[in-house]
Amino acid sequence: MRPEDIPLNRNLSHGSEDLHYFLERARNGFCNTDPAADSNIEGAVKAVCRELEKAGYQCRMNLGVSNFKINLAILSLRHEGHMLAGILFDGKNYAQAATVRDRDLLRESVLRG
Question: What pTM did the predictor assign?
Fold first, then answer.
């Protein structure tokens, strides 16, 4: 099935329209070139961090020393320098990854160590 098989010039249900756009992205790939999208991710990271801090957790944003950064690290209060969890948001780096392996498996393996 191709996106052209679902013409958008008719009154379609939302599901049919969504399927059309999904098939388009699956065929052409998706690269987010909108610079505002990255600032939206940063805003989301900050908002989640604020809520976690309100709940008593200590957080650090954009943790890492290379191009690969953990968007949000939740730090252990008992063991200095240890992370309880690392959270990755699907931002620019996710969208620009060349393969599914790079997007999903490689990122997870870095988090697990």
Answer: 0.55
Q: Say how far apart CA 2 and CA 113 lie, in whole Å.
A: 40
Across the 113 residues of the chain, what is the mean pLDDT of every consecutive 10-residue run? 80 78 77 54 89 92 79 89 85 71 70 68
* Residue 49 buriedness (CB in 10 A; 0-12 / 13-18 / 19+): buried
Q: Contact at 8 Å (CB) between 71 and 83?
A: no
Q: How far, in Å, CA of 88 to CA of 63, rounded?
A: 11
Is 63 in contact with 75 (CB distance < 8 Å)?
no
Q: Distance between the two ends of the chain, CA-based, in angstroms?
A: 40
